[in-house]
Amino acid sequence: MVKIGVLISGGGTNLQALIDSIEAGKIKGKISLIISNKEKAYGLVRGRAAGIESIFIDPKKFKNSEDYNARLIESLREWDIDLVVLAGYLKILSKDFIKAFRNRIINIHPALIPSFCGNGYYGERVHKEVLDYGCKVTGASVHFVDEGTDTGPIILQKTIEVEDSDTVESLQRKVLEIEHEILPEAVKLFCENRIILNGRKTKINWE
Ligand code: GRF
Hints:
By secondary structure, the chain is of the alpha/beta class. 35% of the residues lie in helices and 25% in strands. It contains 6 helices and 9 strands; from the N terminus they run E-H-E-H-E-H-E-H-E-H-E-E-H-E-E. Strand 4, helix 4 (95-100) and strand 5 (105-109) form a beta-alpha-beta unit. It is globular and about 50 Å long. Bound molecules: 5-O-phosphono-beta-D-ribofuranosylamine (GRF). 5-O-phosphono-beta-D-ribofuranosylamine binds next to helix 1, strand 5 and helix 6.
């Protein structure tokens, strides 16, 4: 059984989608630990309601990002975590963190990487720029995390039409629905060892 650690910073709807998929028996994995860098993150409430160890680790208690990440690694190792899922986690991971969990960190991004991603591209800004650019499709991407920002090998992507009537809010809602589909799907594929990594590309063994 793959032991999953989830890092969050906010509402945790992606975390909830993962919890629901696991509770429905769709994923051969178990969320053993949830860590938030924000004390008030509603995702912590969701984790506790599901009976999952859900902790707030305060970045302010650490003199720098490296020390904070070292503490994250320590907690994840204490819980023997095999796979780290970033579900709306907004802090940058250190090089040591990436090394400690090489090719075992998955992130969900609310756009079609390599578009509208990288430093500063999160939340409503992503959807505003998609609308301002006049895109006809957008979507979400699940990818492995490497030393860059949103640059790791892509695992799954799914698109939706951008309609003339769409606003930032309506687009965010539509994309979030896709996120809630493809993040659990990607975690399921990982737990079933069906993601074959080949350099910066992945091949999915669907059968
Ligand atoms: C989502 O849009 C996700 O793509 C991005 O952060 C947002 C978090 O949503 N990484 P939630 O906290 O999972 O509801």
